[in-house]
């Protein structure tokens, strides 16, 4: 299998190429749509099968040798600088590959139903396949540069897919915003790579010579070569630069603003890219390079702070949204904050655990919300919904399962992973962090209860549309994900720690012992989650009559402006728009472009030109063609010379 | 990449420029009523020149390195002037670049109707000059070709241009002439200062060590003289104005290869012949290029004219080239040459899209008046996005390798400069996307856009060729990097070795 690892990303690549080069030319719209869907699904499905085989093979290897590596070709090689295209399939990559291809396949299948009759469906499936290729490159890369290819590639696909309906202003605005905000993160990544290359001479993850190992070696030795930074400065610098990249891609403070807007894309795209896979790339990156982060306590504190703050802001924003998808989007921001916080506390295996379970149940929630939107004829405002459980019973059931999993209620997947993160914070004695994460988990349960109440209970508040259940092409992927959301926690139960153990060769973490404190924490957390979820559900069922399109939330009268602040995600986006860099930069650009360059720089140029003109005009006075003028000049000259000679003599 | 050997005894390099000089004569004698014949002559011969340069490209042996296919004839031996051509890892990619740009540019020029005979003669003459500059290893010969490349520009812009064309043409010519004056000062100084009375650059570089004071004095005029043509701040304003005013194929050549002549001259003449001067002065120029990179990108952000955006993006990208020249280490110089190639192809594609596919149809380039063209001409949108991705340094496109090498190179020598220049990464993304968004996204702004004439096969062919190169080099950069490495390594050695003469 090691030799044919490249088949895993190659299959979706072939799907992409087939769709772009062949299917696209088909003149029969119905056949074109069918072929595009089948090719795309088949490619990803086969990739999943292959990945599963590779995974089994990897599991059969002895624990220390669990590692498949294949170098395809030298990508670039110029003396000191060489980067191969090499694929790595180790325990960490393997779980990511399974998540990407597994959830990816289901979302592809779902898309066949969801995107039915879309006019650009071939393009859609082609980009979806391309996204899978890039995501696989990201998680299977054996060096940072190849990872960066995937990193940028998924960003590009995200841009293209958010902008799928580019005629809509919101969609094209959101696509551009997502891309530009991510570029800021990418600049950080690029600088991190340069620093790594300048100091370690390699960007590889694999083997003794990898920069990860080298960083470990220099740790503890105070390198005092003049002009060179000490190792602590170096690792802190690299970690913080990488963190800039992470905040972009994984939608953390202060760059999370693109993710809620990205919901303007088709819902399956939100599920795949903006919930389950791409946005978790930052967490994966931190896990992959954890040996650098671990060396810098400063960087780790910053990471933790960023994660915790993001979790809280995302959670508070999610409770105040009206758009069904924006609730989930802010919830994703918040949950990503959880993962980043876990990584910051050094619990990388726990972060990956939450990444995997979240990938499953958030994909489920998004797809189910897509089913709601589809059934409700593109209505996304929850104020216009209500009572949909009658019209869409299946969707209601799977949505409820997803919501319970996300709320972290025993024994569904989210309970186990979220609880591990809370336990980690508690175990580290980080009470402040624990408290914020705990509050966030209550918020999570509350907004999911609120959402269920608003969407599925009560009476339909807007009767202008006739809601219907989605077809089987869309519902059976939901059921599979629902099963995953129920049993997903089993991959890393306390005491057993299957996942932690599986990841141990890469992340070097031991599972935490199970003790009374953990149990109490678990009980308290579940109690709080159940309570908040019930509170949210009850409150909004009870106040259903107060909810009308374009009316404020019933909680608004208690919170007032604070509720508005929640709804606008603490005004982070507005701050950028109105008060800080963006307007400032805009006016600078305007000044430079309209005044400084044309008038300042060119003004100098024109000045020189005028000077030359003036001089020419002066000369022209003399060169007037009259012999008498020349004679006069000549005479003056002669007198001057003679005068000079006389005086000097 | 050494694929095959070419039979010796044939002056391959001369054939390259002659293959473009011949059609200028041919077209001159063809009656101007034979419009398609003239076009075909132009296209076929430019294709021939491309094929010849590709032959040389694949026959060059990087393992051996150095100058190959050298041709030498005495021209004016009394003055030490010779007809000396040769290729190495630096100018070979430039030849191929020029081949691609003139071939696609010729295709794109198909719709020129006004005084078409003169247009083609001048266009091909200009490109002949460009080939000559890249090929010449004799300083005097280089300048002869250089002037040949610059002069037709004035007429091409002045007659076939748009938007303040007379102003643009005059500004461009005056700037470039001023640049040449500086460069000629440096050249004459080299000629007399070396004591050899020769213009042979190989000889000058290998046998002469100019004194420290001499190099300190004459490096700046020589470098600036060429850097004006590369659009270095604050001598950049001619370039956007010129780009905008020029007809499409000329914009392609202008931004695609002409600006590269400047950077090429900086590297080949100034830095190669005066390595110590380079050592001393380059930090200063590195600081100037920060303005190009960040300031150019910022201004691109504020433009409303589509062509001005591309024009200022060229200022920004060429700034990266000069910046990495200033780093003067192997990776930096590699990045510089790669960027010249990548930017040449990319900007060619941009102008083909903006100037030909869009402007010639919509007759407006103002972003607020455009919109929704993605629906009307999806091909143009795809091409622009591919060019844009390369431009913003997306991995998998040629531009990424260039920028990556540049940033690593600059980072090694001037970390602070690299950090400031990194600001251009999000800015570039922003202005490219802003343009993409305003022009191609959204609903069709003007109903008349729905009835625009379809793209022609020439436009498709040209666009596809350039796009394939951008992606091809992005996926397999080794096709260039190995070669460029052999070319820049000696220059770096020269510069590093020159520290010893500091005691002069």
What's the SSE blueprint?
The complex is a heterodimer of chains A (649) and B (504).
Chain A: H1 7-22, H2 29-60, E1 68-78, E2 81-89, H3 91-114, H4 121-140, H5 144-162, H6 169-200, H7 211-218, H8 231-249, H9 258-261, H10 267-276, H11 281-288, H12 290-294, H13 297-319, H14 324-344, H15 348-375, H16 388-391, H17 393-407, H18 413-427, H19 431-456, H20 472-487, H21 498-507, H22 516-542, H23 556-559, H24 561-567, H25 572-579, H26 581-622, H27 627-648
Chain B: H1 12-29, H2 35-59, E1 68-76, E2 81-87, H3 91-108, H4 116-135, H5 139-160, H6 165-193, H7 201-207, H8 212-229, H9 238-245, H10 248-273, H11 275-302, H12 306-327, H13 330-362, H14 373-376, H15 378-391, H16 398-413, H17 415-422, H18 424-440, H19 457-475, H20 478-497
Helix pairs in contact in B: 1-2, 1-4, 2-3, 2-4, 3-4, 3-10, 3-13, 3-19, 4-5, 4-10, 5-6, 5-10, 6-8, 6-9, 8-10, 8-11, 9-10, 9-12, 10-11, 10-12, 10-13, 11-12, 11-17, 11-18, 11-20, 12-13, 12-16, 12-18, 13-15, 13-16, 13-19, 13-20, 15-18, 15-19, 16-17, 16-19
Structure description:
The complex is a heterodimer of chains A (649) and B (504). In chain A, strand 1 (68-78) and strand 2 form a beta hairpin. Chain A starts with 6 loop residues before the first helix and ends with a helix. Chain A has 27 helices and two strands. Among the domains of chain A are: 296-567, no CATH class; 572-648. By secondary structure, chain A is mainly α. With 504 residues, chain B is mainly alpha-helical. Chain B has one domain (12-498). Chain B is built from 20 helices and two strands. Chain B has helices at 12-29, 35-59, 91-108, 116-135, 139-160, 165-193, 201-207, 212-229, 238-245, 248-273, 275-302, 306-327, 330-362, 373-376, 378-391, 398-413, 415-422, 424-440, 457-475, 478-497, and strands at residues 68-76, 81-87. In chain B, strands 1-2 form a two-stranded antiparallel sheet. At the A-B interface, strand 1, helix 5, helix 6 and helix 26 of A face helix 6, helix 11, helix 13, helix 16 and helix 17 of B.
């Amino acid at each position: 299998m090691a030799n044919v690892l490249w088949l895993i990303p190659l299959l979706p690549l072939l799907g992409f190429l087939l769709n772009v080069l062949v299917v696209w030319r088909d003149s029969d719209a119905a056949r074109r749509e069918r072929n595009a869907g089948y090719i795309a699904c088949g490619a990803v499905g086969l990739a999943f099968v292959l990945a599963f085989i590779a995974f089994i093979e990897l599991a059969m290897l002895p624990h220390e040798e669990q590692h498949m590596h294949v170098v395809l070709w030298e990508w670039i090689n110029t003396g000191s600088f060489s980067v191969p295209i090499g694929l790595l399939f180790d325990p960490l990559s393997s779980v990511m590959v399974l998540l990407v291809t597994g959830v990816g396949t289901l979302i592809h299948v779902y898309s066949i139903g969801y995107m039915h009759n879309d006019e650009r469906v071939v393009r859609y499936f082609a980009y979806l396949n391309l996204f899978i290729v890039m995501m696989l490159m990201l998680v299977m890369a054996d060096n940072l540069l190849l990872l960066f290819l995937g990193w940028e590639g998924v960003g590009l696909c995200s841009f293209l897919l958010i902008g799928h309906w580019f005629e809509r202003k919101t969609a094209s605005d959101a696509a551009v915003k997502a891309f530009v905000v991510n570029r800021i993160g990418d600049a950080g990544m690029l600088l991190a790579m340069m620093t790594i290359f300048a100091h370690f001479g390699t960007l590889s993850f694999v083997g003794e010579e990898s920069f990860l190992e080298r960083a470990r070696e220099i740790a503890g030795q105070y390198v005092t070569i003049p002009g060179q930074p000490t190792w602590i400065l170096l690792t802190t610098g690299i970690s913080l630069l990488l963190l800039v990249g992470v905040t972009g891609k994984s939608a953390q403070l202060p760059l999370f603003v693109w993710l809620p807007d990205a919901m303007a894309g088709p819902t399956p795209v939100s599920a795949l890219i903006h919930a389950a896979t791409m946005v978790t790339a930052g967490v994966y990156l931190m896990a992959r390079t954890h040996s650098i982060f671990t060396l810098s306590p400063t960087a780790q504190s910053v990471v933790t702070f960023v994660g915790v703050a993001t979790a809280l802001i995302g959670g508070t924003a999610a409770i105040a949204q009206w758009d069904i998808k924006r609730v989930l989007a802010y919830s994703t921001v918040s949950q990503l904050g959880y993962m980043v916080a876990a990584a910051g506390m050094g619990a990388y295996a726990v972060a990956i655990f939450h990444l995997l379970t979240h990938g499953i149940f958030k994909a489920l929630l998004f797809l189910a919300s897509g089913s709601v939107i589809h059934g409700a004829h593109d209505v996304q405002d929850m104020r216009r919904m209500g009572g949909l459980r009658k019209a869409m019973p299946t969707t209601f059931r799977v949505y409820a399962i997803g919501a319970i999993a996300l709320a972290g209620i025993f024994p569904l997947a989210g309970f186990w992973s979220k609880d591990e993160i809370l336990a980690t914070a508690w175990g580290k004695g980080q009470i402040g962090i624990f408290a914020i994460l705990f509050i966030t988990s209550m918020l999570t349960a509350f907004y999911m209860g609120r959402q269920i109440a608003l969407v599925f209970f009560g009476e339909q508040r807007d009767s202008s549309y006739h809601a219907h259940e989605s077809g089987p092409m869309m519902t059976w992927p939901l059921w599979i994900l629902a099963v995953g959301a129920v049993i997903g926690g089993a991959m890393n139960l306390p005491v057993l720690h299957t996942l932690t153990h599986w990841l141990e060769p890469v992340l070097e973490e031991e599972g935490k012992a199970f003790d009374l404190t953990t149990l109490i924490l678990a009980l308290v957390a579940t109690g709080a989650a159940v309570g908040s979820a019930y509170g949210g559900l009850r409150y909004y069922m009870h106040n259903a009559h107060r909810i009308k399109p374009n009316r404020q939330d019933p909680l608004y009268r208690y919170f007032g402006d604070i509720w508005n602040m929640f709804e606008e995600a603490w005004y982070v986006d507005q701050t950028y728009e109105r008060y800080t860099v963006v307007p400032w930069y805009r006016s600078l650009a305007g000044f430079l472009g309209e005044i400084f360059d044309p008038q300042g720089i060119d003004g100098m140029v024109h000045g020189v030109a005028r000077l030359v003109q003036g001089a020419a005009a002066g000369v022209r006075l003399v060169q007037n063609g009259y012999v008498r003028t020349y004679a006069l000049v000549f005479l003056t000259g002669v007198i001057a010379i003679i005068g000079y000679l006389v005086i000097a003599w | 990449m050494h694929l095959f050997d070419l039979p010796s005894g044939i002056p391959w390099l001369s054939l390259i420029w002659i293959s473009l000089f011949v059609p200028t004569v041919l077209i001159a004698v063809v009656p101007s009523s034979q419009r398609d014949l003239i076009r075909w002559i132009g296209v076929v011969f430019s294709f021939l020149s491309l094929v010849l340069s590709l032959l040389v490209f694949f026959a060059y042996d990087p393992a051996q390195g150095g100058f190959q296919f050298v041709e030498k004839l005495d021209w004016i031996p009394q003055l030490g002037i010779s007809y000396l051509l040769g290729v190495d890892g630096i100018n070979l990619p430039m030849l191929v670049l020029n081949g691609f740009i003139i071939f696609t540019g010729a295709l794109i020029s198909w719709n020129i109707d006004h005084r078409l005979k003169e247009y083609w003669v001048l266009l091909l003459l200009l490109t002949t000059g460009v080939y000559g500059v890249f090929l010449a290893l004799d300083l005097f010969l280089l300048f002869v070709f250089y002037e040949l490349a610059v002069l037709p520009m004035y007429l091409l812009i002045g007659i076939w241009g748009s938007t303040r064309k007379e102003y643009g043409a005059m500004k461009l010519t005056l700037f470039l002439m001023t640049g040449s004056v500086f460069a000629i000062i440096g050249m004459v100084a080299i000629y007399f200062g070396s004591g050899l009375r020769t213009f042979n650059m190989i000889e000058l570089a290998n046998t002469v060590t100019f004194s420290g004071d001499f190099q300190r004095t004459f490096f700046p005029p020589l470098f600036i003289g060429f850097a004006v043509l590369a659009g270095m701040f604050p001598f950049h304003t001619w370039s956007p104005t010129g780009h905008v005013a020029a007809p499409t194929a000329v914009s392609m050549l202008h931004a695609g290869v002409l600006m590269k002549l400047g950077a090429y001259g900086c590297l080949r003449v100034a830095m190669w012949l005066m390595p110590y001067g380079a050592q001393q002065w380059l930090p200063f120029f590195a600081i100037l290029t920060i303005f190009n990179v960040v300031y150019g990108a910022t201004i691109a952000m504020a433009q409303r004219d589509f062509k001005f955006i591309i024009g200022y993006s060229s200022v920004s990208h060429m700034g990266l080239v000069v910046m990495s020249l200033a780093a003067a280490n192997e990776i930096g110089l590699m990045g510089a040459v790669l960027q010249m190639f990548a930017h040449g192809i990319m900007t060619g594609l941009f102008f083909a899209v903006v100037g030909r596919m869009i402007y010639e149809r919509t007759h407006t380039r103002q972003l607020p008046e455009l919109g929704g063209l993605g629906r009307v001409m999806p091909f143009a949108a795809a091409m622009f996005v591919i060019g844009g991705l390369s431009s913003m340094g997306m991995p998998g496109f040629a531009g990424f390798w260039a920028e990556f090498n540049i940033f690593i190179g600059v980072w090694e020598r001037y970390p602070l400069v690299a950090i400031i220049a990194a600001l251009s990464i999000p800015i570039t993304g922003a202005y490219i996307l802003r343009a993409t968004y305003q022009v191609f996204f959204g609903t069709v702004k003007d109903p008349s856009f729905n009835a625009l004439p379809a793209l022609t096969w020439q436009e498709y062919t040209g666009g596809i060729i350039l796009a394939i190169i951008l992606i091809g080099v992005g996926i397999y950069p080794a096709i260039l990097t190995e070669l460029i490495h052999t070319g820049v390594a000696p220059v770096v050695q020269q510069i590093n070795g020159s520290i010893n003469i500091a005691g002069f």
